[in-house]
């Protein structure tokens, strides 16, 4: 019935879809096994992609040849660039998506990939021979052979849903959990633990009074995630902002004695940065209100997502409390919020390729590694798909460094540090975030995507043309002078000192008050670099890139120098099966951590918690450096 596949991907969430797409596009024969083919890339929580640091990840996925950015552009209903008041290292794109369209577009995309097959079933165990994966076994008792397996099980591994005093098996609301696979992995020597996440109540938009809320429109000139020619967003749907109040909090407190979180029935660790509403009012008892973002689920649905009201309290308590929120007085609920506990496996059991250290050719990606978020899952899936294909093809792994991508930061954090709570990406996790901006993801990564085989030649040529245009503008700005009488009117208007003699345009652009669009109005020659549309000046990513590189040149160069120094440690590789215990000068904790995690380079070792700078010095001396 089944041929032997090159790669089997288990789970069709965001990680599984990216893994299957990348591996199949690279030439591997792939079987994607999912419990429900109607729910591919389901947005289980909020219907949105991107956000702070997450938006950078989506752009990186796109730059490498992944699909999440393209799917988002085709299905978004609102776009906002967050943190625009801050420097460009902090700018983060975010889109509200049409939940149903997003899943539909993913399925349509996957079905168009020739050597990708599908099977609807539950994988209950993996098949291993002599330490190497050989296939999977399903709930129907079918054994399917493969050279490699990628597990992307999300929250489905022994998932338990909690609503008040009710608990029942499930990987998502109204969907069954996956049983047996955890035991299969534990029997092979893997360490597993429990995590918890939650999701808010969904409500009927017809029952809400939006006039009592603050409307949040999208950007007037919405941008995109993908660097390809995806459609421009021409119309948008608004989100809305409202707040809880002390009456809401008092009602919620009446259910604390029935809360699975507070009475101890939930054992898994929840996400610190996305707590439930009951957790928020308990931990921040001095706050009289909390924000609620009311987000539409799509173009043609009345369903709304209440972002900020994640809860596992009894449904009657959720309903009573919501009715006291301004604008929710007549609210109708579609389904209550709930918490879900699930199994995950410590990511320190992985190599940076996301291949497991215990079983050869077995890869983990997504929430099985302890992460939370569609974007974090999708980038892991992309990397696992690439590396599974490369491994069975006999090629070297594809690893991104911390100064090359947020994806590199995420995977390095997981593999070297592990996580005891759901891991979420933030800009603060990246020490080289001036280099890892959302605007330059294509410049950083598209050449790598081309080398892998996921980026076509014409896209690389387009990037090279863009880079040349950027450099031409920078050269012009640094060489072109402007007279005082030509520019002082702008400087006065911008409340920045006038000039008394001619000055380089590039020097004027260094002033915080001056933008490149300001200079264009006063320099006819600079206007020649601008592409126009029917409405006047078009948004031009080339101009934006040139402006950033001029304004932040000294900071960028300094960060590059620091990264290059740190990367020297990445070039020092440990011998295979290196025995740390024979180095008496190493601390006991360092010996224990290094032996367990087994970093491949000295750079990775330096980031392991418990390995001190003095330990690194000992290793440097021993390795002759």
Describe the structure.
Strand 10 (160-163) and strand 11 form a beta hairpin. The chain has 625 residues and is of the alpha+beta class. Strands 10, 11, 12, 13, 14, 15, 16, 17 and 18 form a nine-stranded antiparallel sheet that branches. Strands 1, 2, 6, 7, 8, 9 and 19 form a seven-stranded mixed sheet that branches. Helix content is 35%, strand content 19%. The model is unreliable at 533-538 (pLDDT under 50). The longest helix has 23 residues, at 457-479.
Produce the secondary structure layout:
Layout: E1 5-10, H1 14-25, E2 30-34, E3 48-50, H2 54-64, H3 68-75, E4 76-82, E5 92-97, H4 99-111, E6 116-120, E7 123-129, E8 132-138, E9 143-151, E10 160-163, E11 166-169, H5 181-187, E12 192-204, E13 214-216, E14 239-243, H6 246-253, H7 277-283, E15 291-296, E16 303-310, H8 315-322, E17 333-335, E18 338-345, E19 362-364, H9 374-392, H10 406-417, H11 441-452, H12 457-479, E20 481-482, H13 484-493, E21 503-504, H14 505-509, H15 516-520, H16 524-527, E22 532-533, E23 536-537, H17 541-551, H18 553-570, H19 588-597, H20 602-606, H21 613-622
Parallel strand pairs: 1-2, 1-9, 2-6, 9-19
Antiparallel strand pairs: 3-5, 4-5, 7-8, 8-9, 10-11, 10-18, 12-16, 12-17, 12-18, 13-14, 14-15, 15-16, 20-21, 22-23
Short description:
By secondary structure, the protein is α+β, with helices and mostly antiparallel strands. It contains 21 helices and 23 strands.
